[in-house]
Automatic annotation (TrEMBL):
Matches recorded under InterPro entries: RtcR (IPR009715)
Superkingdom of the source species: Bacteria
Protein name: Transcriptional regulator
Biological source species: Xenorhabdus vietnamensis
Domain Regulator of RNA terminal phosphate cyclase, residue spans: 2-185
A UniProt-annotated Pfam family: RtcR
Length: 236
């Protein structure tokens, strides 16, 4: 069985529930993530900023109490403005390209609940681009507006659309309809023609801009040899 590795940023608000014992009665996403009995976490890579070191250590200690098998590794990052897309994306990308992923022996979850909305968007983009070979992990209170259940609940989101049969079937159906439209409903086994249609499809059906067509148009008559008519350049 593969080891499960979680990656996330420290929640400076949601993970900050004070120092007293009553913090255990509140939902804290990073701690709650490690309290799911059916989702054991072997290691948590927790990203934090320098000013939040004390909070990061407290969260690490609390996780050790509720999930002693989870190894928490603190990763310090530098972000001046957590709402600056370029800065946040660069910081998270730097972490991703340096991390020694081992997909043969480990599986990865990216926790997207904590951090600013910008950080959440960056996690999504990096995962979609496969800089992070991971699934997304969303945590939330057990009942909306009720944070008394400290562990909360979770949802795993897989961005590999090939796993979703309904979506895959829809994409294939739409692609077939688009090709049929370009062929004017005429089926053909001509390899060169089909290759041309595939190339045109990538551009024509995703843009409203005019397309300049150059070359010769071949009309095929089933009762006589093909006739080549040179139309020159034209805009379609």
């Amino acid at each position: 069985m593969k080891r499960r590795i979680a990656i996330g940023v420290l929640g400076t608000k949601l993970d900050r529930r004070g120092k007293k014992a009553n913090r255990w009665t509140k939902w804290r996403p990073t701690v709650g993530m490690c309290q799911q009995p059916e989702l054991p976490i072997d290691k948590l890579e927790l990203l934090y900023q320098t000013n939040d070191y004390v909070l990061a250590e407290r969260v690490k200690e609390d996780i050790a109490q509720v999930s002693p098998q989870t190894k928490v590794v603190l990763n310090e990052i530098q972000i001046e403005d957590p709402w600056d897309f370029e800065e946040v994306y660069t910081a998270l990308l730097d972490f991703a390209v340096r991390y020694p992923f081992d997909t043969e022996n480990e599986e990865y979850l990216v926790h997207i609940t904590t951090g600013t909305h910008v950080a959440q968007i960056c996690w999504f983009l990096l995962t979609e681009a496969r800089y992070l070979p991971a699934q997304l992990l969303q945590t939330s209170p057990k009942n909306e507006g009720d944070e008394s259940h400290s562990a909360g609940v979770y949802t795993i989101i897989d961005l590999d659309l090939s796993r979703y049969t309904t979506l895959t079937s829809r994409f294939q159906r739409e692609q077939q309809e688009q090709v049929a439209f370009l062929k004017s409903g005429i089926a053909t086994r001509n390899t060169n023609f089909n290759r041309l249609i595939d190339q045109v499809e990538r551009v024509a059906l995703r843009s409203t801009a005019p397309i300049l067509q150059r070359g010769r148009l071949v009309q095929v008559n089933p009762f006589s040899p093909a006739e080549s008519i040179n139309y020159g350049n034209r805009v379609i």
